[in-house]
Amino acid sequence: MTFDVSLRPAQMKVLASNKRFRVLVAGRRFGKTHLALVELLRAACGPDRTVWYVAPSYKQAKRIAWNRLKKLTQPFWASQPSETELSIRLQWGSVIALRGADQYDSLRGDGLDFVVLDEYASMHPQCWTEVIRPALADRQGGALFIGTPQGFNHFYERFEYAQKDPEWAAFQFSTEEGGNVTATELASAARELDARCFRQEFQARFESIGKGQAYHAFQRADNVAPCRYKPGSALVWSMDFNVDPMCSVLVQRDGDHVYVLDEIILPDANTPAACEAFYERTRPMWEQGRLTVQVYGDASGNQRNTAGTRTDWSIIRDFLASKREAFEAAFRVASVNPAVKDRINCVNSRLRNAAEECQLFVDPRCKELIRDFEQVCWKSDASGNTTGDLDKGDPKRTHVSDALGYYISQAFPMQQKAGERWQRLL
Ligand SMILES: Nc1ncnc2c1ncn2[C@@H]1O[C@H](COP(=O)(O)OP(=O)(O)O)[C@@H](O)[C@H]1O
Ligand SMILES: [Mg+2]
User: 399 C-alpha vs ligand 2 centroid, how far in Å?
Assistant: First the structure.
């Protein structure tokens, strides 16, 4: 059986290896899934073969691979593919099926000739050890592990192992080496992402997630600098509605650059108190002339309120309206908050992007914000892996950086070009 597909030189190198087990570490959009599909069809070219494509979840398997696999295999179908089983029977009796590692217990029992584990870094490692590896035993089946690094987790260990065992082969390629992403696109990603993120996602490097430090791009020497109020340009006031402490930041923007002039940290306070503090703190500014204030902050301030009967936002709205001689206000609050990870990625890339540009500066008087940048960590679960939530163990931490993050993520959102490119970046 012959079929016609194109493979790039780097993909060819993986395909040409005759090792039973292979590990491919590659950047986003390298062409990993494309190669996986070609590998599946090749492995199914023989009588009565059973080959599997496994993704971290059933839903993901369907979303990433199903339509592409149908298109590739259509000339060889024995019958219509089963949409419920996500399986395709080929004219010579072989079957290619999609599976999700989230239900790995239900996958036991089948003997396999070949399996691709796509996005293995996000997969339950037990899926391999407990289910897939035993299923390959009776037919001497092979396996291809593919993915983009996610810190030093089980994918890293598999990659290390593959470099030592003679039955295994290991490959590592950057996105650029895949040849599917233009140099312009890569340069644009380098400007948008922080350096560590770029190395991990596009250069396929295993990067330390540190001790879970959330704002890993922050460097006191580069990001702390005196920031002076510039009359005539708007003042950003961005809020977090925690009660103790209640936090907000005063910011000015100049093109791509962001300057944090001051922080307002009020222990055990409410929104009216924050308004009073804002009024006093900005006195030297509005005394020079009416001040344009752009208000940003926690979208959930619409539902909740720290003061009693009115929402936080209505209190701020009324306050600014009552000080018309001092302020001209514009509200830029998002309707929903971004995911925590996305918000922190936005701040990190402003602190230092992969092109090594620092575009976020904090005045040294912002002591709590600097503490947050240096101390806020991701929470880890029982097995020590970082989660998508911040560690809230210290009640003083996270709020003022949250306040700033609401502004940054709204004013400098990550672009959603190129499909899945920005997903799951940490
Ligand atoms: N050999 C190839 N020839 C043509 N296009 C390819 C090839 N390999 C990948 N592509 C295309 O490049 C893009 C990224 O490929 P994909 O396999 O989804 O990458 P990854 O899984 O590494 O993120 C897709 O649009 C895919 O169709
Ligand atoms: Mg893919």
Answer: 36
